[in-house]
C-alpha cells in the first residue's frame, strides 16, 4: 500500500496513485486498511471524487457495470 505518498502527489490527475486506494468494487479503502493519516485520507477522498466527476476514474469497475 502507498502509505508513504507525499501530500503533493495526491492529486486528481494522478490516477496511478489514486487507484491504489480503491478496492476491486471501486470503493475507497478505509484509513484502517491504508494506514494513512486523517489529513491524507481526506485529500485522497476528495481527489478520487474529483477524478470520478471528470471521468478519469470510473464509479464502478467494468466487470460490475450492467449486471442487473
Automatic annotation (TrEMBL):
SUPFAM superfamilies: Ribosomal protein S18 (SSF46911)
TM segment ranges: none
Annotated signal sequence range: none
UniProt GO cellular component terms: ribonucleoprotein complex; ribosome
Pfam families: Ribosomal_S18
GO MF term (any one): structural constituent of ribosome
Keywords tagged on the record: Ribonucleoprotein, Ribosomal protein, RNA-binding, rRNA-binding
GO terms classed as biological process: translation
InterPro entries: Ribosomal_bS18, Ribosomal_bS18_sf
HAMAP family the record matches: Ribosomal_bS18
Function description: Binds as a heterodimer with protein bS6 to the central domain of the 16S rRNA, where it helps stabilize the platform of the 30S subunit.
Subunit structure, interactors included: Part of the 30S ribosomal subunit. Forms a tight heterodimer with protein bS6.
NCBIfam families: S18
Family note: Belongs to the bacterial ribosomal protein bS18 family.
Protein name as annotated: Small ribosomal subunit protein bS18
Gene: rpsR
Amino acid at each position: 500500500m502507498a502509505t508513504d505518498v507525499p501530500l503533493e502527489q495526491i492529486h486528481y490527475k494522478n490516477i496511478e496513485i489514486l487507484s491504489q486506494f480503491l478496492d476491486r468494487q471501486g470503493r475507497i479503502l478505509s484509513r484502517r486498511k491504508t494506514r494513512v493519516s486523517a489529513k491524507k485520507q481526506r485529500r485522497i477522498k476528495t481527489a478520487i471524487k474529483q477524478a470520478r466527476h471528470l471521468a478519469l476514474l470510473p464509479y464502478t469497475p467494468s466487470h460490475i457495470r450492467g449486471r442487473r
